[in-house]
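Notebook entry, structure prediction.
Reason for the run: the old model in the group folder had no record of what sequence produced it. Starting over properly, with the input documented here first.
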Amino acid sequence: MMNDSPPAPTRRAEWGAAAAATVTVVLWASAFVSIRSAGEAYSPGALALGRLLAGALTLGVICLLRRSAWPPRSAWRGIAISGLLWFGFYMVALNWGEQQVDAGTAALVVNIGPILIALLGARLLGDPMPPRLLAGMAVSFAGAVTVGLSMSGEGGSSVLGVVLCLLAAVAYAGGVVAQKPALGSASPLQVTTFGCLVGAVVCLPFAGQLVREAAAAPASATLNMVYLGVFPTALAFTTWAYALSRTTASRMGATTYAAPALVVLMSWLFLGEVPGLLTLVGGVLCLAGVAVSRSRSAARAGAPGAVPEPRPARAPGSAR
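New structure, fully documented this time:
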């Protein structure tokens, strides 16, 4: 049986984590287009369940092919909490919230998630809060606000929608912080697979809706739901967990601020939505902030234990 324990940190692992984070952000940004399509035919709970079932099936096949072991008992608490909050509650709340508010408001509210991750990570995980990280998050959040304001007015907003997006952001932050310790004893594949399964179980009450809506939904909507499960869920959540196991929750949260810029680009390319000047400025600010938050001074880069960033005593080995 294969050993699923995380490898020892190396310079090569650091670059691998950066590449994994990039894959995650690109796929999560692409989910915006697919959710827009699938959400026209599927209700929030049914869409979340269908996405999670597709993701769990994909991950289950990969685990069988790799003959992956069950996660150790010590990892189950984090897996269960992240599965409940992030894979389950977050996806339903976000799908529902985006039907109640315009895209700009949803993006603006949900993007408090990385800030909450940084605060919770510092409080519960002992994550460091270097000035570059704080400055980068401030710049990126300003960019997210700019993108959100430039996109507002395209639809109605409701108090319920804002509350749902806010709850989604809180669930996202809680799920990421809960997932981090689990990666100290379980592999990214294990944590993602069983977190996805927990989320699917949480969403089982929507099974009846999923069956009824799938029978009437156009093929394009169903294919987009399957895409959401295979790529932005199964693949992107696994690459996220891989990167998270090699850096702090705060830095990974800040990395997701690249998503609004990519969403603008993809909406332009695939939906024909030409961005305005203010939207482009916001996207550039998002990317600039991520670059600052992920950078390190020369002295810090050469310091012992700089890879991974968490302190040795805390090192353990999150949409859309």
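Summary: Residues 1-8, 297-319 have pLDDT under 50 and may be disordered.
The old model has been moved to the deprecated folder.
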